[in-house]
Structure formats: structure tokens, C-alpha cells
Amino acid sequence: MSIDQGLGLMTGILFGFLLQKGRVLRFERQVGAMLLKDMTILKFMLSAILVGMVGITLLTDSGMAALRHKPMNLGAVVLGGALFGAGWAVMGYCPGTSIGALGEGRWHAVFAVVGMLMGAALYAELYPFFQTTVLAWKDFGKIGVPETLGISAWVIIPMFWVGIILLFRWFEKKGL
User: Fold this and answer.
1) Is 0.85 topped by the overall pTM?
2) Rounded Cα–Cα distance for residues 49 and 99 (Å)
């Protein structure tokens, strides 16, 4: 196992531990999030995004990592978002939480994992078709928020932090 693989494994185990400790693997939390009655999962995701924004920017600025994000393709985003949302609504788990739930011994999550694997295999088989249809929709290229706005990520990061902290405060006031 390479160092990169070991670091990836350790990061995955830590993330799974945090998912479990944050109780976001609970089906009730998933349903509450979909009904906009429990913001625990949204708070967890936004917290991870905030930390990730800083970490990734530090790593890229120091030259320890290079950003190679995929082009923003409208068809891929629409189709992928629709499939992700439908799967989450039907199973009550997103990909990460379904693996975590399975790790906790919630055997009904097997159906979500099998569904993801079947969906990935089906996508691989249909990829040539998708290339000429859905993936041929508008391609915006490799863009991100800093490139789109033409400003440094270090200007955007504090604005996101302030906005998310204010959103968290609002959630707490509303009991969400």
C-alpha cells in the first residue's frame, strides 16, 4: 500500500468515525434532513466544506497539491444530481452514509450499496451513449468560484465562513 493510499484509508476511517459520532448515519436524521426538519446533516456537510476549503487552498498554495477539477458540464450535473437525489430519497442514505450505516451493522443499507454498484456499472455500460447525449450539453470548462469571480480564494473563504456561521446561528434559533 502506498503512502497516498494509506493516507486515504486513514482519512476515510476518520470521516466514517465522525459520521458515526455526529449521528448522521441515523435514518431518522436522513429523513429529517429531507423534510427540512433536522439540519444536523447539513451542518455536518457544511462544516466539512469549510474545513476542506481552507485545507485545500493551503495545500495548493504551498505546492503540496494541485487542483485538477473536472469541467463543469451541465448535463452531468443535472443527471448526476437527479440520480443522487432520487437515490437518497428512496433509500434514505447518501453514498457515504450508506457505507457508514452498513459499518454500524444496519443491514438494510446493503440495498443502497448494491444499488450504487449497479448504478455505476450501468453508467459505465451506457457511457458511450451519454457522451453523445447528456454529456454533450453545455460544458463550461474547468471553472471554480475564484476563477468565475476573478478573485483570490482567500477573499472568498472568509465570506463563506461568515455566511455559514450566520446560517448555523439561524438554525439554532429555529431549533433545527
Assistant:
1) no
2) 20
Locate the domains of the chain by residue range.
3-174
Contact 88, 94 (CB under 8 A): yes
CA distances from residue 142 to 100, 157, 163, 170 in whole angstroms, order as listed: 31, 19, 25, 34
DSSP 134: G
Over its length of 176 residues, how does the chain's per-residue pLDDT go in tens digits? 899 899 889 988 888 888 888 888 888 888 888 888 999 989 999 998 999 999 999 999 999 888 887 888 888 889 889 988 888 888 888 888 888 888 888 888 899 999 999 989 999 999 999 989 888 888 888 888 888 899 999 999 999 999 999 999 999 999 88
